[in-house]
Amino acid sequence: MPEIYVSTDVESDGPIPGPNSMLSFASAAYTADKQLLSTFSANLETLPDAIPDAKTAEWWSTQPEAWAACRSNLLSPTVAMRAYVKWIETLPGKPVFVAYPAGFDFLFVYWYLMHFAGESPFSHSALDVKSFAMAMLKSEYRNSSKRNMPKHWFDDLPHTHVALDDAIEQGAMFCNMLAENNRR
């Protein structure tokens, strides 16, 4: 069964799930040869007892279009996460969670999956694109930022802080990296 790379981006109102809410998330499912199979996106109602983080709220005030995008057509987290599990189950292979940074995005997605759907199709695993870049560039982790990555890893896709746009952009970048790594 082939691996399907589920590039995922999260937008939140703070640094951790529970005290803060995941506002929006999206995934773009790619094959290793960069075929975009399907996408999933949902904007979520905030958690009832969560409080937005002040620094994050300040950042959101600089992103009015992205804020408006993630606050429209809201779903309850239960409805969204159960639909997400069903979407993942339709993918024609073994799902691999991919994010940049995985430590942030996976934290939210896994917490929400376990809390609202009772399961994670990804198990406990997430592939971090920055760690993959570190290995490919043979550099230190902190030097493996996007500004130090080769330009040919990037497609001409927008980074808008709208979860679906960013998941597609990041997934294409990961597939470019994967192709180069497989040629080595």
Topology, please?
Layout: E1 3-12, E2 22-30, E3 36-44, H1 54-60, H2 64-70, E4 74-75, H3 77-89, E5 94-99, H4 102-117, E6 127-128, H5 129-137, H6 163-183
Parallel strand pairs: 1-5, 3-4, 5-6
Antiparallel strand pairs: 1-2, 2-3
Helix pairs in contact: 3-4, 5-6
Describe it for me?
Helix 3 (77-89) packs across helix 4 (102-117) and helix 5 (129-137) runs parallel beside helix 6 (163-183). The protein is an alpha/beta fold. The protein has helices at 54-60, 64-70, 77-89, 102-117, 129-137, 163-183; strands at 3-12, 22-30, 36-44, 74-75, 94-99, 127-128. Helix 4 (102-117) links the parallel strand 5 and strand 6 (127-128). It is built from six helices and six strands; from the N terminus they run βββααβαβαβαα. The mean pLDDT is 97. Strands 4-3-2-1-5-6 form a six-stranded mixed beta sheet. Helix content is 40%, strand content 21%.
Summarize the structure.
This protein is of the alpha/beta class.
Unreliably modeled segments: none
**Count of helices?**
6
How many E-type strands?
A: 6
Order of helical and strand elements: EEEHHEHEHEHH
Task: Calculate Rg over CA atoms.
Answer: 16 Å
Q: What's the oligomerization state?
A: single chain
